[in-house]
């Protein structure tokens, strides 16, 4: 399976973004309103410049909770962005997400942001694939396919 297979099966809710100059108050409200765990940070030219996750917010709360609402997204977001490409293999993506301890990956195609996948999306796709394989192997072993 590939990343593009996950994107095909996802609801077309779009990618939730925020600008780096917006306040953390706006970002937190956006995370809560949209019930998502991360926002993709795009600059004025719509280039990917960061990811703001719930984990980033919690880390900031631990050190500067009194200043958090007025801080800029660019001051809190993760700058070292790891991305997925549409043709990436899901096993490789899962390994990257596990090793890097990240739960959301922006998906790029031809230098353009086209979606976001979560570790939950990857696990769900892998589980579905395993169920499909088991069903077909079981059918084969029990003779449901003509020999």
What's the gist of this structure?
The chain is an alpha/beta fold and 147 residues long. The chain has one domain (3-141): CBS-domain (Roll), CATH 3.10.580.10.
Helix coverage percent: 40-55%
CATH topology: CBS-domain
Task: Kindly give the count of domains.
Answer: 1
CATH top level assignment: Alpha Beta
Q: Which architecture name does CATH use?
A: Roll
CATH homologous superfamily designation: CBS-domain
Q: Assess the beta-strand content as a share of residues.
A: 15-25%
Shape: elongated
Order of helices and strands: HEHEEHHEHEEH
Number of strands: 6
Low-confidence segments: none
Cα gyration radius (Å): 19 Å
Average pLDDT works out at: 91
Strand order of the largest sheet: 1-2-3
Structural category is alpha/beta
Largest sheet: 3 strands, mixed
Amino- and carboxy-terminal Cα gap = 28 Å
- Number of continuous helical runs: 6
């Amino acid at each position: 399976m590939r990343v593009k297979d996950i994107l095909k099966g996802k609801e077309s809710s779009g990618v939730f973004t925020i600008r780096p100059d917006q306040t953390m108050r706006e970002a937190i409200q956006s995370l809560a309103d949209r019930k998502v765990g991360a926002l993709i940070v795009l600059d004025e030219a719509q280039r990917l410049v960061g990811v703001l996750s719930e984990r980033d917010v919690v880390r900031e709360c631990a050190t500067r909770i009194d200043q958090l609402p007025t801080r800029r997204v660019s001051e809190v977001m993760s700058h070292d962005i790891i991305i997925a490409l549409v043709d990436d293999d899901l096993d490789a993506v899962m390994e990257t997400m596990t090793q890097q301890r990240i739960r959301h990956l922006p998906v790029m195609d031809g230098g353009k942001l086209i979606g976001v996948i979560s570790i939950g999306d990857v696990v769900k796709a892998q589980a579905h694939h395993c169920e499909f394989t088991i069903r077909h192997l079981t059918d084969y072993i029990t003779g449901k396919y003509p020999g």
